[in-house]
C-alpha cells in the first residue's frame, strides 16, 4: 500500500535532525519510534498519555523547547511524547538532581555471550 508523507511526518523528521548524530539506538531512533507509536494511539489514549506526561519533571523544559524550535509541524503532545522516549537514556548515571533517577539496571538486561 502506498502512503503519502504528511507534513507532520516531514516536520518530525526535520525536528529529529536537529539532535545529535545517531549512534546505535540513539535518541533520534527512540523519537522516530515514539512519533509513530503516538500517531497510532487512539485519541482517547493520546489524551490520557498527555495528561500523565504533564506530571513529568521535565515537562516544562520540553514545552519551552517545542516553542523555541518553532515546531508547527509537530504538535506539542506528540513532541512531549517523543522527548519522553529519550529521557531514560538522558538521566542514566545522572549527576546533580538527575542522580535521583539513576537506575541504570532498569533500562535493559545485558546477557553475556556464550
Put the structure in a nutshell.
Helices cover 53% and strands 0% of the residues.
**Residues in helices, as a percent range:** 40-55%
Which segments are poorly predicted (pLDDT under 50) over 5 or more consecutive residues? Answer: none
Average pLDDT works out at 77
**Estimated share of beta-strand residues:** under 5%
Cα distance, first to last residue? 42 Å
Alpha-beta classification: mainly alpha
Q: Helical element count?
A: 6
* Radius of gyration from CA coordinates: 16 Å
Describe the biggest sheet? none
Q: What's the number of extended β-strand segments?
A: 0
The arrangement of helices and strands along the chain is: HHHHHH
Q: Quick one: overall form?
A: globular
Description:
The longest helix is centred in the N-terminal third of the chain and has 14 residues, at 27-40. This protein has helices spanning 7-16, 27-40, 43-53, 59-69, 76-84, 87-91. It has 6 helices and no strands. The radius of gyration is 16 Å and the shape is globular. 53% of the residues lie in helices and 0% in strands. With 114 residues, it is an all-alpha fold. It starts with 6 loop residues before the first helix and ends in a 23-residue tail after the last helix. The chain has a domain at 7-17 and 26-91.
Structure keywords:
globular, 114 residues, 6 helices
